[in-house]
Amino acid sequence: MRLAPQSHFGIMADMRNLKIAIIGLGNMGKYHVKHSQTIPGAELVAICDTDPERVRLAQESAPGVPGFTSIASMLAAVTVDLACVVVPTFLHAKIAGELLSHGVHVLVEKPIASTIQEAESLIQIAIENKKRLFVGHVEYFNPATQAFFNHIKTNSFGQIYQICARRWSPMPMQITDANVIIDLCIHDLHIVAQLIAESPTHTTWHSKSHVLDNRADAATGILHFPTAMACIDANWVSSAKVRDMEIVAQNGVAKIDLLNQRLFISSPNQPEWTETAITKAWPLETELTHVLHAIRTGAPSPIDAKEGLRALQFCQ
Fold first, then answer.
1. What topology does CATH give the domain 18-136+284-304?
2. Domain boundaries for CATH 3.30.360.10 within the chain
3. Separation CA 266–CA 268 (nearest Å)
4. CA distance 260 to 110
5. What is the CATH number of domain 140-281?
6. Cα separation of 306 and 309, whole Å?
7. Angle, nearest 10°, between helix axes 27-36 and 52-60?
8. Over the stretch 227-274, which tens digit does the pLDDT of each residue have?
9. Nearest CA to 295 among 88, 2, 1, 20?
10. CA atoms within 13 A on the CB side of 122
């Protein structure tokens, strides 16, 4: 296997294009293929899936990019700096661990792994191989989420008291292994973890299986922190898509419409809702750009492996 030149701590030693491989070419993998070809400073060098037909179809949208049906054959043929792992959750630990062990930085789709133990093992593998491990908590890069974080950096929003999040959608037929908590709720739990530095004192989850036989397809969780609380509500049985979050704080209230990338703010001095101007963008493209920058510079990341582990712990 040929590896790209890197510094001792995994920071890129030059400013050439970083070479990206996409592992897993299902629904989300196709978006990774699309956006990895639009980012300055990136070069899509490989796509990989165990299904040859998926590889062939993906190559139609990535002309000239070689396709592979195994990671071993891919690593033997091309140099890879970053691998995006977009496979079913139960394979995250196995495939991400293999890539890290071969000296490749990894962005694994959320959740980081199926279990806390697997996540901790992955983090150790990344440390031992001096490689970066990121988790695809893409809603953090939603322009509405970013606008809210920018707002609280520049305004006195005060202590956060309560967070309420809703994430409803029809059944995603491509997800066959994860339940609604670690697939849907974890999006909002990661944002909660970025807003509240504390650990929950206790967490209560209520879930039901309305349509699925062996996995929860509806869930509500309440997380109690020393100074705040969060309520996370999600399901796969809604005919309408809903993705929003309301945040009540000492000096204001925010409504984040994640689906439509809109942000509304209310404050004691201006109780009427005021919409914040937002430039819409593809969150995945922003996420990939962020990951490449972090690899080049060694900068800290809000979607690094430890933050992915923390979000998974919030699911328990």
1. Rossmann fold (3.40.50)
2. 140-281
3. 7
4. 21
5. 3.30.360.10
6. 5
7. 40
8. 999 999 999 999 999 999 999 999 999 999 999 999 999 999 999 999
9. 20
10. 33
